[in-house]
C-alpha cells in the first residue's frame, strides 16, 4: 500500500490483440484495476521491462486504480501472453502493434502510457508512431533510441554497461539463464544497483514468471522456453554494443518517424542507474519538445522496487502537469 486509502482490486484478463487463426487470436495477459467497465474513466497503460513482468506494477495499479482504469500487460512472450518462437516476431514494430491494439480494446485512447526499461523503449516507438493513441508518455529509466544508439556506437563506458545485451543475444542462452535456480537472472538485478529489495516472496514471484509455459496461436510455434520470448527482444533489436569494426550498428540510421515524439513527455529517472546513466538524457529536447524530467538521486534502474512511494509521488505529479 502506498497510502491509507483503500486499494483498487487487481485481476488478470486476456485481451486479444490481433486477428484469430482457427478461432484463437493472439492475446496479452493483463493485470487490470479500477472501474474497467466505465469507458469514461481515463486509461493508464503500464509497460514492464526485462527481466520482469506485469506484476511489478501491482502496487501502482492498486494505488491509481481508485481514479483510473489501469492496465498492465505481460508483453508478447512473457508470462501468460502469447509467445511465438520466431525471433522476427519480436521486432519492435510488431510489439508496438500489440500495444496499439490493446489501447483500441480499451476504448482507443490512453490518458498516459507509463513504462520502464524495455516497456519504455516500446512506448517511445508507440508515442512516435501513433501519438493519437495517448495523451502523455511517462518513462522510467527508459532511454530514447537516438542517444542510446550514439552511446552504444561511440561510448566505451556505455558499451561495457550494455555488454549483457550481447550475452542475451547468444543462441541457446535460455538454458544458461535457467541454470541453478536462475542464478544468472538474479545478477541482472544485482549488477545494476544491488537487490536488497528482492525479498523471498518477490523471488518466488519472479520464478513463477520465468517458468510459465509458453503458448502461441495455431500455425505459429510457441517458444521452447519461458525465457525465449524475453531474450528475443534483444535478438530482434538492432541496438546492441558493436562486436566488430564492421558491425551494422556503426552505420545504422534510425528513421525520423521513430525519433520525434510530439506528445507531452515526462521522465522519472533513478540517477544511480549504472545500466542507463543519466547522461542519456542530455539533449533529449531535440526529439521531444514537450519534456520534463524528474531526477531521483540514489535510486537505480530498479527504482520501482526500491522506492515505490517516491515513484508514485512523481507519477502523480507527471499526470497532473
Task: Give an account of the 3D structure.
By secondary structure, the protein is α/β, with parallel strands linked by helices. Helix content is 35%, strand content 14%. It has eleven helices and eight strands. It has an eight-stranded mixed sheet with strand order 1-2-4-3-5-6-7-8, sandwiched between helices. Helix 2 packs across helix 3. The model has no long low-confidence stretch (mean pLDDT 96).
Summarize the main sheet. Answer: 8 strands, mixed
Distinct helical segment count: 11
- Going by helix content, strand content and strand pairing, the class is alpha/beta
Termini separation comes to 24 Å
Whole-number radius of gyration?
18 Å
Helical residue percent? 25-40%
Q: Report the count of strand segments.
A: 8
Identify the overall geometry: globular
Give unreliable regions as ranges.
none
**Widest sheet: strand order?**
1-2-4-3-5-6-7-8
Q: What is the mean pLDDT?
A: 96
SSE arrangement:
Layout: E1 10-16, E2 27-33, E3 43-47, H1 58-64, E4 69-73, H2 92-105, E5 112-116, H3 118-129, E6 137-140, H4 145-154, H5 156-161, H6 163-168, H7 173-191, H8 200-211, H9 228-236, E7 265-270, E8 291-296, H10 303-306, H11 308-320
Helix pairs in contact: 2-3
Quick gist of this model?
It contains eleven helices and eight strands.
Amino acid at each position: 500500500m502506498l497510502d491509507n486509502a483503500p486499494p483498487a482490486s487487481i485481476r488478470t484478463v486476456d485481451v486479444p490483440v490481433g486477428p484469430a487463426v482457427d478461432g484463437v487470436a493472439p492475446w496479452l495477459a493483463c493485470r487490470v484495476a479500477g472501474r474497467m467497465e466505465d469507458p469514461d474513466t481515463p486509461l493508464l497503460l503500464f509497460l514492464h521491462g526485462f527481466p520482469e513482468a506485469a506484476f511489478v506494477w501491482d502496487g501502482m495499479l492498486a494505488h491509481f486504480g481508485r481514479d483510473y482504469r489501469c492496465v498492465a500487460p505481460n508483453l508478447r512472450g512473457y508470462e501468460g501472453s502469447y509467445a511465438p518462437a520466431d525471433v522476427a516476431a519480436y521486432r519492435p514494430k510488431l510489439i508496438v502493434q500489440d500495444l496499439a491494439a490493446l489501447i483500441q480494446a480499451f476504448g482507443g485512447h490512453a490518458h498516459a502510457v507509463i513504462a520502464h526499461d524495455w516497456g519504455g523503449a516500446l512506448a517511445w516507438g508507440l508515442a512516435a508512431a501513433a501519438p493519437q493513441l495517448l495523451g502523455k508518455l511517462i518513462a522510467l529509466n527508459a532511454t530514447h533510441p537516438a542517444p542510446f544508439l550514439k552511446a552504444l556506437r561511440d561510448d566505451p563506458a556505455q558499451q561495457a554497461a550494455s555488454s549483457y545485451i550481447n550475452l542475451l543475444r547468444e543462441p541457446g542462452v535460455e538454458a544458461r539463464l535457467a541454470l541453478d535456480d536462475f542464478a544468472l537472472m538474479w545478477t541482472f538485478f544485482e549488477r545494476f544497483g544491488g537487490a536488497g529489495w528482492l525479498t523471498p516472496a518477490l523471488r518466488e514471484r519472479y520464478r513463477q514468471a520465468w517458468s510459465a509455459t509458453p503458448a502461441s496461436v495455431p500455425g505459429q510455434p510457441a517458444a521452447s522456453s519461458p525465457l525465449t520470448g524475453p531474450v528475443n527482444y534483444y535478438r530482434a533489436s538492432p541496438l546492441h554494443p558493436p562486436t566488430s569494426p564492421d558491425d551494422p550498428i556503426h552505420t545504422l540510421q534510425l528513421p525520423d518517424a521513430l525519433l520525434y515524439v510530439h506528445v507531452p513527455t515526462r521522465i522519472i529517472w533513478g540517477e544511480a542507474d549504472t545500466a542507463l546513466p543519466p547522461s542519456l538524457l542530455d539533449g533529449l529536447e531535440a526529439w521531444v519538445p514537450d519534456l520534463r524530467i524528474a531526477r531521483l538521486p540514489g535510486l537505480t534502474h530498479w527504482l520501482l522496487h526500491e522506492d515505490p512511494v517516491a515513484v508514485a509521488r512523481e507519477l502523480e505529479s507527471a499526470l497532473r502537469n
